[in-house]
Please model this.
Amino acid sequence: MSTERGSRIPRRGSKGTRTREALSEAALWLVLERGPAGVSVEDVTDAVGVSRRTFSRYFGSKEEAVLDGFRADCERINAALAARPASETPLTAYRAAVRSWLADPVSPAWHRRDGVREVLRLAEAEAPLRAVLRRVLLEGEAASVRLVAARIGTDPEHDLRPAVAVGSGAATLLAATRAWVLGGPREALPALVEEAFGLLATEPPPVETRTTV
Model:
């Protein structure tokens, strides 16, 4: 698979954070260039110039390294969600958090990072990548549910509202992402997300069915 390296998340923070990001970036591009079967953990550590022990400090597998940017994206969405005004309803707050993440000029979202669409396509065909991606997204969603529950002062284990609100928002984001992955301009993701959330907001209520005796 031929890819070009361009926009990426800038490396900031501690040495450990920069090492983690370097390993993730190396794993991503090696897998896109060679395919998952053609890349070992040693290939990744050699590319960064660190030991296998250092790799294991951050990741349990090469798939986790490849997809670590998605874990960081979930954290950014949740940071934006935590900062939303308390007056907003949970779904409105989640939508605004996603919008903030997509527009962030410092840490580029998926449509402004090279390799993201390619790795999402690859995950559709490669079960190990797909499994890790699903786990990463579910963990991010669970964190969102806890944040929403805290916003409205409820227990998410006994109140369905946080899970329903976040589940609806996350599913809407993924629906837009699937359409984006299938084709069209790379910069189209924010518009697709807005369209998808608009469809969610205008979903008509179910038609009542009457039973005749």
